[in-house]
Amino acid sequence: MARPNDEVEALLREYADLIAITGKGAFKQRAYERAARAIGGHPADVATLDSKSLREIPGVGSSIADKVEEYLRTGRVAAVEETRASIPPGVRALLDVPTLGPKKAMTLYRELGVSSVDELAAALREDRLAELKGFGPKARENIEHGLAVLRQSGGRIGLDTALGVAEETVARLGEAAGCVRCAYAGSVRRMKETIGDIDVLAAADDPEPVMAAFCALPLVAEVVLRGRKKTTVRTVDGLQMDLRVLAEDSWGAGMIYFTGSKAHNIRIREIAVRKKLKLSEYGLFDAKTGRKRAARTEEEVYRRLGLPWIPPTLREDRGEVAAAQRDALPRLVTVDDLRGDLHSHTDLTDGIAPLTEMVAAAARRGYHYYAVTDHAPELRMQRMTLDKARAQREQLRQLAGEHGRLKLLHGTELNIDPEGNVDWPAEVLAEFELCVASIHSHFELDRDAQTRRLIRACENPHVNIIGHPTTRKFGRRNGIDADLDAVFAACARTGTALEINSHPNRLDLNDEHILRAREHGVRFSIDSDAHAPTHLGHVRFGVAQAQRGWLGPDDVINTWPLTRLRRFLRKTGAR
DNA sequence: GCCGTTTTCGGCCCGACTGTTTTCAGTCG
């Protein structure tokens, strides 16, 4: 299913959590977390590494390497199994509730026997937390709010996870006997930021072997229902997945129908009705005679409706059908349009890979330019200093020219303080080729304060990009409360770009914000915010959100040639 | 548990915020 590195990362993270909950040493816990991150972000497949190379991964010593090897060999690790036996899995799930950490989770389990999020909600309702030490009224209120945030994302999973499952399933079913075509549809194909369930389509004359292959997939935990045309399963992640099998000659109509969105489908069916046609998942038919007019491909069905093909990321009934009728669909930005990445980290701060590895990974992507933007000193835990930043700049200079056309830019990710000020005085900021500025704390300030703060950051002549502008994280916190339209206007006025942060847990700005910001004439930067070489590929998620926000290449500064980008970074020609 | 221009022991990312335990533990980034 997942790549072995991801499985190992998940296992080590789980073990780290269990160590924290059982109170077996903060340093041991951190060692496991560090190793988990290092392996998750390691470019080589751990399953192919020999013992020596495994131990060369920073943070992986002999104890952890042994466990990794045990896992790769047997699929389990005795030490982890033992700890699991003493702590029910639901206790670990309590850590997903914001404001609940390992200590409080353990107290809840030990004192009240709470061993799941549901039991926590029940205990809260029955006011059983009041008797516990360390759970005063405010703490209980915070937990209640935390549960609400968790519930909002509840049942939905990240686009990255869903895409992984969908792609894996399509690859496997494509090999099933008699399967002519296979593809995923639904919200995964529309690249929505979170996914409720996965829809997979297959074309086959005989559905039976495909259905059987589907039910036999290793990631299937339970077959919920099974019929001739449709089968529903639940995956090991608790995700619902539907497979529909149809005849090859209605493939296009089926793809349109199951890609949705529902609102988009209603819109195009209205057009069909006006043309005395009837559109279903089986095809586009003459309403009177029932004769099939189109069905084989999406293009053919749209064409018969008098429309050009509409990209799935636009199919949300946000005016795309009307635009298609006017032949005014935007030319959407694609991953191939990106000439560089303007927000990334190295192990000088909280990345896991050294500068040389990050740069090499950027070069492999064929970029024309690449900005290294490690954290600035105000984010204290990263221990950045001006000396370190300058040394990094020198190191970057020495790497210049080592990767063909790739131009390296030295930047930094500044911290926006509650007043909207950033690290370092202007003369120091001027040394950097670009500055990203982001909020990392004080998420609870009121709307006016947050708005002022962001606008002030935009007005700083050295701030080029506002990083992850709302700071939301799925399942962790909602974005800050700010008058975003005022912020968008300030960005347009000052020539400050807004980031579309591509990390699948962030996707910030989101599609609706992008649409609104675009109306203000804002420019965008689609960045990975990579903390490891493998993260550079996250831009596919950011690009998808940009498409959902109707952006073309011209709206996105990191599709521009370097000379044009540099002009923008000087912040003189705000439009 | 990892690691080493502090090198096989003794450190380890640091500081702010918050609520409540009135002197600090827990959580977060």
TrEMBL record:
EC number: 2.7.7.7, 4.2.99.18
GO annotation terms (biological process): DNA repair
Intracellular or extracellular location(s): Cytoplasm
A Gene Ontology term for the protein's cellular component: cytosol
Cofactor(s) the record lists: Mg(2+)
Sequence ranges assigned to domain Helix-hairpin-helix DNA-binding motif class in this UniProt record: 52-71, 92-111, 127-146
InterPro entries in the record: DNA-dir_DNA_pol_X, DNA_pol_lamdba_lyase_dom_sf, DNA_Pol_thumb_sf, DNA_pol_X_beta-like, HHH_MUS81, Hlx-hairpin-Hlx_DNA-bd_motif, NT_sf, PHP_dom
Domain DNA-directed DNA polymerase X: 3-316
SMART domains for this protein: HhH1, POLIIIAc, POLXc
Statement: the UniProt record of this protein carries the keyword Transferase: yes
Keyword terms: DNA damage, DNA repair, DNA replication, DNA synthesis, DNA-directed DNA polymerase, Exonuclease, Hydrolase, Methylation, Nuclease, Nucleotidyltransferase, Sodium, Transferase, Ubl conjugation
An example Gene Ontology molecular-function term: DNA binding
Catalysed reactions listed for this entry: 2'-deoxyribonucleotide-(2'-deoxyribose 5'-phosphate)-2'-deoxyribonucleotide-DNA = a 3'-end 2'-deoxyribonucleotide-(2,3-dehydro-2,3-deoxyribose 5'-phosphate)-DNA + a 5'-end 5'-phospho-2'-deoxyribonucleoside-DNA + H(+); DNA(n) + a 2'-deoxyribonucleoside 5'-triphosphate = DNA(n+1) + diphosphate; a 5'-end 2'-deoxyribose-2'-deoxyribonucleotide-DNA = (2E,4S)-4-hydroxypenten-2-al-5-phosphate + a 5'-end 5'-phospho-2'-deoxyribonucleoside-DNA + H(+)
Occurrences of domain Polymerase/histidinol phosphatase N-terminal (ranges): 340-418
NCBIfam families: PRK08609.1
Family matches, as PANTHER family: PHOSPHATASE YCDX-RELATED
Role summary: Repair polymerase that plays a key role in base-excision repair. During this process, the damaged base is excised by specific DNA glycosylases, the DNA backbone is nicked at the abasic site by an apurinic/apyrimidic (AP) endonuclease, and POLB removes 5'-deoxyribose-phosphate from the preincised AP site acting as a 5'-deoxyribose-phosphate lyase (5'-dRP lyase); through its DNA polymerase activity, it adds one nucleotide to the 3' end of the arising single-nucleotide gap.
Protein's recorded name: DNA polymerase beta
Species annotation: Streptomyces mimosae
